[in-house]
Specification:
By secondary structure, this protein is α+β, with helices and mostly antiparallel strands. Helices cover about 20% and strands about 30% of the residues. A hairpin with a 4-residue loop joins strand 5 (about 125-130) and strand 6. Helix 5 (about 155-170) runs parallel beside helix 7.
Length: about 725
């Protein structure tokens, strides 16, 4: 199903002798057109609380049908004043001793024992849509229990407090709905109809209202009840109750007219029928459709109206879960911190990541965690704009987390006045070189080398963690256009910190994905659950056919590999002793594109092949366009994969791709240079010193010379 439907009906006023033809039309419309999953009734199902009226009401309500399994009751109900008091629902405390005006509560309770909801007996209800599961709590309030005069309503303070507590005690609920009979806010049309806007009548006492509606609404707002449904005045109305108290919510208050078109002293009338259908969409938005008389029959009388946005629902759920659960009120109010993450995938498989935090309180040390089962990390760059203070910049290295091969931590220690204060903005950025997967062969290369469930399923992803309480977080993914998925293929998952490794699809958040074309998409999560990890995932693309020049280069290089290697070696000999380095050229194997086979052999120790499969291997990094250089005694996070790429006598290893402009992410070959001993010992006497960065540039220059010579042959 695409939405959960809740029918809200009220003021049916069943009485023997009244025609039931109108009610039968309402039943038919509800059962056949609306097909509600839940029916909520806000009182006045009888006219004078007589025994025969309750019997009639019970029989007629059994005609209703609910389209849901697992709940034997057809509806949930609270009492109206006509269900409590004889003589048209009026009471008078001085005459109650005679029993005529007083409460007939025993009849109501006996008739609807299982259907009554109250603060002491709330109703919890769960039902899935096609993409989400709604968890509801329905709370009832008896606005007649403490009534003293006429048709006025009053809810005792203990009952109000108990209702607020009932809203708080189930923090896992998505939506909390309160039912009450009397209207809790003024109804403008009612005042106009009764002439209360005329000066001569405006001082008349209110004999039908809820006398303490202000305190009731205040408590419900503080408890983050989402909807208040009522009836009583046979008048449609929608309004909001807002509070300026920090941490309180805006209540949506919905009134239903009479579900039978009842009016005092008159028979039921179809033209006066009104009831509400509340729709809970799978994106967590809540909508109202009003049903009434329309062109001679029942139907929608206006356009659907949005009552609650997804962020409204998430905000209330967040507060109930993180502020109000466990008893007592937490006065901290709403969180104000925000987290944004930009993840850019490049054709060379590099992943460029930027995180920006605003309104952030930090201690004396800042820690950034990143996770990936492939690629090589750049340093961590952090920029902090302190509140009423300076802009400071930092650069630190990432280090692998103990016993977690794919998790890395970078720490920045703040100095001076900044530490332990509030930052207006903290921006951290880093790069995973050759860390991404864009095609099926990319994932195939990683197969068996990591236990990543998303990648195992043939998908790539970006993740963001709500490290603490946030007002919002967002993650934006940018892909090279030719690798972009179809919009319907993008999914959202979440990981609960109490159940690590268990990923749950959140189809409700998929509805809020925002696409800028196909290649850029953003997930925004208002009031995310603290410490949850949110994932945006998509299927990788099919492999691309190799560029024609790849085969042309391989053939030409094999024809005269000696000349090609000589051209590359000539560049190196300008700075390095030729007796201390070996140089070899590798091209993709015809049998397995993930294997680069050597077509030259500097000596007997030269590797016959280089695999692109090790996720942190130098061969993988270099193939995707990043020339690399590593010292065998200082491999860091590359140790497990890169160490196997060294020859026994090598201390320094450098690799550079042979790349032609205009070929996108494709490399033609790989130039490998191994140095025996330290880099310092290999540098020619009388030439400037050479560090690892300089060696990378030198090897890249050699690869360019090799390409230039080889291209002349085709």
């Amino acid at each position: 199903m695409s939405a959960v439907k809740i029918a809200h009906i009220s003021d049916l006023h069943f009485k023997p002798g009244k025609s039931l033809a109108v009610w039968d039309q309402v039943v038919q419309y509800l059962n056949q057109k609306v097909k509600p999953h839940l029916i909520l009734i806000t009182g006045d199902v009888t006219d004078d609380a007589k025994r025969e009226e309750f019997e009639l009401a019970s029989d007629q309500l059994k005609k209703l049908a609910r389209h849901v399994e697992g709940d034997s009751q057809l509806f949930r109900i609270v009492a109206g004043n006509h269900d409590r008091f004889a003589f048209l629902g009026n009471t008078w405390k001085w005459l109650s001793v005679f029993g005529h005006f007083r409460d007939k509560a025993g009849r109501f309770a006996a008739t609807f024992t299982d259907q009554i909801v109250s603060a002491a007996k709330p109703f919890d209800f769960e039902i899935p849509t096609s993409r989400a599961t709604w968890k509801l709590r329905i709370i009832g309030l008896d606005s007649n229990d403490a009534s003293q005069y006429f048709a006025q309503g009053f809810v005792s303070q203990p009952s109000i407090a108990q209702a607020a507590e009932a809203a708080r005690e189930r923090p896992d609920r998505d939506l909390v709905i309160a039912l009450v009979h009397h209207h809790v806010l003024p109804i403008p049309q009612l005042e106009i109809n009764r002439g209360r806007t005329n000066a001569g009548l405006k001082l008349l006492p209110n004999v039908t209202g809820l006398l303490n509606s202000g305190s009731l609404l205040s408590f419900l707002s503080a408890a983050h009840v989402d909807l208040v449904l009522h009836g009583h005045e046979h008048m449609r109305n929608q309004a909001r109750f807002g509070s300026l108290d920090d941490g309180a919510s805006n209540l949506v208050v919905i009134a239903a007219g009479s579900g039978t078109g009842a009016d005092t002293g008159k028979d039921f009338e179809l033209s006066r029928v009104h009831f509400n259908v509340i729709e809970l969409s799978d994106d967590r938005s809540v909508w109202l459709q009003e049903i009434g008389y329309n062109k001679g029959t029942l139907g929608a009388i206006n356009e659907r109206r949005q009552l609650l946005r997804p962020q409204d629902v998430r905000q209330s759920r967040f507060v109930r879960r993180n502020r109000l659960s466990g008893g007592g009120d937490d006065a901290r109010g709403f969180p104000r911190s925000r987290l944004k993450k930009l993840v850019r995938f490049h054709e060379q498989r590099d992943i460029e990541i930027t995180e920006t935090r605003t309104d952030w309180v930090v201690g004396n040390e800042w820690t950034q965690v990143t996770r990936n089962s492939s690629g090589r990390l750049s340093p961590l760059f952090v920029e902090c704009q302190w509140l009423n203070g300076p802009l400071t910049e930092y650069q630190e290295e990432f280090f692998p987390k103990l016993d977690e091969r794919d998790r890395f931590v970078g720490s920045v220690r703040f100095t001076g006045s900044g530490g332990g204060k509030k930052a207006e903005r903290i921006t951290s950025s880093w790069i995973w070189y050759a860390g991404g997967a864009l095609t099926e062969s990319d994932l195939q290369a990683m197969k068996g080398l990591q236990a990543d469930p998303i990648r195992t399923a043939g998908r790539e992803y970006a993740a963001i963690r709500a490290a603490n309480e946030l007002e919002s977080l967002s993650i934006t993914v940018q892909l090279p256009y030719k690798y972009a998925p179809a919009t319907e293929e993008v999914q959202v998952l979440a990981e609960d910190p109490t159940r690590p490794g268990e990923l749950v699809r959140l189809a409700e958040l998929e509805q809020s994905l925002d696409f800028c074309g196909r290649a850029i998409f953003e997930l925004s999560v208002p009031f995310p659950l603290p410490h949850f990890v949110y994932y945006v995932t998509w299927p990788v693309s099919a492999d691309e056919p190799p560029e024609p020049e790849c085969a042309m280069f391989s053939v030409a290089a094999r024809k005269d590999v000696v000349s090609s290697i000589a051209a590359a070696a000539a560049c190196l000999k300008q700075r390095l002793s030729h007796t201390l380095f070996r140089i070899d050229l590798y091209v993709p194997s015809a049998a397995d594109a993930q294997i680069l086979e050597g077509i030259s052999k500097a000596d007997s120790l030269s590797p016959s092949a280089i695999s692109r499969r090790p996720p942190r291997g130098l061969g993988r990094l270099a193939w995707w366009g990043t020339p690399v250089c590593a010292d065998r005694e200082d491999l860091g996070e590359l140790a497990d994969d890169a160490d196997r790429e060294f020859c026994d006598d090598e201390r320094i290893l450098a690799m550079a791709p042979v790349r032609a402009s205009g070929l996108g992410s494709s490399s033609l070959g790989l130039l490998r240079v191994g140095i025996r001993g330290t880099l310092e010992s290999a540098v020619l006497a009388g030439t400037p010193a050479l560090d690892r960065l300089g060696l990378v540039s030198l090897v890249a220059e050699a690869a360019t010379s090799l390409l230039t010579l080889t291209r002349r042959r085709y």
